[in-house]
Specification:
Elements (H helix, E strand, L loop, with lengths): L2 H20 L1 H7 L24 H11 L12 H4 L52 H5 L8 H9 L2 H11 L6 H13 L7 H6 L8 H13 L14 E2 L14 H4 L8 E2 L6 H4 L11 H11 L11 E2 L2 E2 L5 H11 L5 H4 L8
Antiparallel strand pairs: 1-2, 3-4
Amino acid sequence: MTKKHWMVLLVFGLFVLACKKDHPIKEEIEKFLGFQKPSNFPEPVYNFANNPLTKEGFELGRALFYEPRLSRNNTISCGSCHIQSSAFTQHGHDVSHGIDDRLGTRNSPAIMNLAWSKAFMWGGGVYDLDLQPITPITTHEEMDENLENVLKKISVLPKYRALFKQAFGTEELSTARFMKALSQFMLMCVSSHSKYDQVMRKEGAVFTAEEQEGYVLFQEKCASCHSEPLFTDGSFRNNGLGVSAVNDQGLYAVTLIETDRYKFKVPSLRNLKYTAPYTHDGRFLTLDGMLEHYNSEVKDTPNLDPLLRKNGRLGIELSGTDKQKLAAFLGTLNDEAFINDKRFSEQ
């Protein structure tokens, strides 16, 4: 082979290598294996029979998740308030900031492990993942748009006509297909590669002595509400925060049942390293502040969760050492692989 041929091959090889480096997301998506239930997780509750996950559906959902045309002035996407590096929360804000920098009343909840959720949002009201995006799209403080306009805006783009064709066999955009595509993206956002998961699956990891002691404390004092392995039981509870400045009454606003006042969805404790600030209104900036709330700051309200009213004491007794050990265990729930998974990133 002549020197000229070698040079041609070398240039071509460098071109191919450069292309690969320029498209790491595409490479990851090409490995698409569909929804995979972690072996230490229960069966999901989402009805996959009505929305089978495909690589094409996931790619469409990912494009829509990061599409600012879902908002009235084409500036806010789902990914604006659900940032991957923050486990799909809006890090740095106590409450979410939406269109025109309008302030919401709640902290953006994490998008992860939604295949196991029966209800959505801090205050409930949505019980089907395929319907959940309607709320942020139409809410005045969030995207301030309507679905009819969203579909009109994206239907004129060849990119989306092609993506809908690949995902659903037709270029026709419909509300149902739009919603199912977004669900396919969100369903794939599974966080299951923390140290805790590796320990539970016997993949070679072991807890340190402090983490193990924290795990024992967790099972004794926290697991009733934050049940393993999802670290939430999916219920709505009044955890003694008291009345906020905006008087957000949580689940009551949906049910109008008196005993539902100030009940909010129990959040997962996974990825706390990335999801601060904590609670529905982001009032606690640190994990220590959140733990101290349960130790000494629980407010006495008529429908306070019974688990926080025991033996004449409000809250959960936690010494300084207890908090340190609990923090060590909770650190094992952080999933660095999840927040760095290229399949879920915008670019």
